[in-house]
Amino acid sequence: MSKILVIGQQAEGKLNSGIAKVVNAAKAIGGEIHVVVFAADGSAAAAQAAAIDGVTKVIQIDRAENDHGLAVIVEPQIVALAKTGYSHVFAAGTTFGKDLLPRVAAKLGVQQVSDIMAVHGATSFDRPIYAGNAILTVEAPAEPCVVATIRLASFQAAGDAAAAAPIEKQTLDVTLPTHTRFVKLEAQKSERPELQSANRVVSGGRALASSENFSIIYSLADKLKAGVGASRAAVDSGYVPNDMQVGQTGKIIAPELYFAIGISGAIQHLAGIKDARTIVAINKDPEAPIFEVADYGLVGDLFTLVPELESKV
Amino acid sequence: MKALVSVKRVIDYNVRIQVKPDGSGVVTDGVKHSVNPFDEIAMEEAVRLKEKGKVTEIIAVTVGGAKCEETLRTALAFGADRAVHVKVDEEIQSLTAAQALAAVFKKEGTEIFFLGKQAIDDDAAQTGQMVAALLDLPQATFASKVEIDGGKATVTREVDAGLETLEIDLPAIITTDLRLNEPRYLKLPDIMKAKKKPIEVVSLADLGVTAAAALKRVKVATPPKRSKGVMVKTVDELVTALKGKGLI
Ligand SMILES: Cc1cc2nc3c(=O)[nH]c(=O)nc-3n(C[C@H](O)[C@H](O)[C@H](O)COP(=O)(O)OP(=O)(O)OC[C@H]3O[C@@H](n4cnc5c(N)ncnc54)[C@H](O)[C@@H]3O)c2cc1C
Ligand SMILES: Nc1ncnc2c1ncn2[C@@H]1O[C@H](COP(=O)(O)O)[C@@H](O)[C@H]1O
Q1: CB A244 within 8 A of CB A192
Q2: For a Cys staple, B111 with which of A130, A276, B171, B172, CB 3.0–4.6 Å?
Q3: Could you read off the pLDDT of B145-189 as tens digits, one per residue?
């Protein structure tokens, strides 16, 4: 029977919203599902993990060094745990998971399965390659362990458990390196829905032409209670911060409703929105490739159409 | 200080990928290939450090078949002083590539290793982290700013929440994100000069590497295509359509 270890990514006492999706991917395999939380004090996040349906146990590992979730600090602890009989180690395909899990795979001597988008069995998975323009089915060796990140846009979140799973505090006797030091995190504080979990997302591209003009996008988003995203061109041009980039090398999202405004629809951008339920595109160029994938396309100048749209929704 | 930079030969990012009808892979014959874009950024960063006098020698490395020589020539044109070609015949997977790259890093006595954050063919985003783990060295992935000073690097990383800054001791492994720099255009004289620079060819066995167990590639398929939707003429029409579907 499978015994799956899910890395319970957390920050400031809040379990990452993607963990319930990772648990759902694990449920597709079945067996025991343990979530491990590494933190200075992981009590709050552990309790949140224990409340996810399908989780059979939560392991809480409190240690001062775990505070900032550095990959080089967390990895040796996961490796030590993984060796206690786990068949799988899963992490969310977030920047945290991507930074961390390949180290675990290397230490365990296995290839990592990156970005699982479908689970066919305990060792059989689909993953996207070439910016999602091809889907690769792989069979991973079962021994010693399957190490994988989960593409969050491909899975629903597991629901709430009827009864909370037990939480077990553990201490691991592992020496941690000191060669890597956290300096600071410049996080964008925003009241808007989080890009990766928002039901609706409004994204702007190069056409916005300045950070001031981006207020048109924010304003429509606020009216729709939507998260805000951007193309790489908009980020590179400095209109918006990097964490808003959607695409192959930014965030992969799957909202119910996506607005691509003044975005041409390069394959790298499309890679990030393939799983959006409905795509709306506004672009002044009727030939823009975004219209090839949009469910609703509107040709015209965004500077008149977007304010009009805002006034009518 | 010596810098190592890995360069991978991949299908050019502008090419429309075609899956082979028999599901064995994607069409590569007659398709334009180039250096993985993130590796160009890695090269550029090393060259800038050399221009600043922080790096004394740049070594480019690739793991792959005979055609990867082209990739190394491009790296040499960028400004690498010499190159190492770890020649393999079959397709190799990340962990094996990482083992080979780690071996070259050790053999060369390098202090800093720049890799791309991901290769745009397999999109795995894992090789740099694996190299760091195999060597038990610090890593700073998804770098958008790198400052080197007195045996340390201060690296700004693009993470989901924003920008994270780490201080790491050298030697270290750094993977590059898109906004780290903008790679220069190659000039003809540099391309000519690159033809004369040395490329050392080694095998996995020379490096003492045995390929790790591979993931079995069962099949490659074309993803379900999104169907083309409808064009609306006015904002009113759009609003009506979205309301009709209960989306707003
Ligand atoms: C390795 C690699 C990775 C990449 N990763 C990503 C990624 O993750 N995400 C991403 O987005 N890109 C990524 N890119 C970049 C991608 O190739 C495109 O360059 C980028 O998406 C273009 O952004 P854009 O659509 O905003 O700009 P453009 O392509 O310049 O498009 C602007 C659009 O706005 C329209 N327009 C202009 N003015 C108006 C107006 N007044 N009203 C209405 N429409 C108007 C134009 O018709 C045009 O279609 C990557 C590229 C590479 C090489
Ligand atoms: N076969 C290879 N040869 C040279 N560099 C590689 C190879 N495979 C991966 N890399 C490096 O590792 C980075 C990340 O690749 P990946 O983990 O495959 O997404 C790439 O940008 C390259 O710098």
Answers
A1: no
A2: B171
A3: 999 998 999 999 999 999 999 999 999 999 999 999 999 999 999
- B165 interfaces chain A, CB cutoff of 8 Å: yes
Range of the domain at A224: 200-312
Strand partners, A292: none
Question: What is the CB-side half-sphere exposure of residue B74 using CA atoms within 13 A?
Answer: 26
Q: What pLDDT score does A21 carry? A: 98
What pLDDT does B91 receive? 85
How do residues A68-111 score in pLDDT, each as one tens digit?
999 999 999 999 999 999 999 999 999 999 999 999 999 999 99
pLDDT higher than 90, residue B225: no
Q: Which residues contact A188 (CB under 8 A, 6 or more apart)?
A: A241, A243, B161, B162
Question: Could you say which of A95, A249, A256 has the minimum Cβ distance to residue B247?
Answer: A256
Mutate to test the pocket of ligand 1, among B13, B41, B144 (most ligand atoms within 8 A of CB): B13
**Span from the CA of A103 to the centroid of ligand 2 (angstroms):** 15
Distance CA A5, CA A80 (A): 12
Based on the fold, state whether residues A112 and A213 are members of the same structural domain: no
Closest ligand to C-alpha of residue A291 is 1
CATH number at B73 reads: 3.40.50.620
Say if residue A153 is in the same domain as residue A48. Answer: yes
ipTM score: 0.96
pLDDT at B226 over 90: no
Distance B121 CA to ligand 1 centre (A): 20
Q: Find all residues with CB under 8 Å of A281, minimum gap 6, and list them.
A: A259, A260, A261, A263, A265, A288, A290, A291, A294, A296, A297, A298
Query: Which residue of chain A is at minimal alpha-carbon distance from B155?
Result: A183
Give chain B's domain count.
Answer: 1
Instruction: Confirm if A291 and A270 have CB atoms less than 8 A apart.
Output: no
The DSSP call for residue A244 is: G
**Ligand in closest contact with the CA of B83:** 2
In a domain, A63, yes or no: yes
Residue A147 and residue A70 share a domain? yes
Q: How many angstroms does the Cα of residue B162 sit away from the middle of ligand 1?
A: 21
B248 part of contact set with chain A, CB < 8 Å: yes
Contact A134 B26 (CB under 8 A): yes
> Whole domain around residue B23: which residue ranges?
2-244
Number of domains in chain A: 2
In tens, the pLDDT along A137-153 reads 999 999 999 999 999 99
Q: Using CB atoms, which residue from B16, B214, B217 is nearest to A136? A: B217
Helix axes A215-223, A302-312, angle to 10 degrees: 20
User: Closest chain B residue to A143 measured between Cα atoms?
Assistant: B213
* A249 within a domain of the structure (yes/no): yes
Separation of alpha carbons B165 and B163, rounded Å: 7
Provide the pLDDT for residue B235: 98
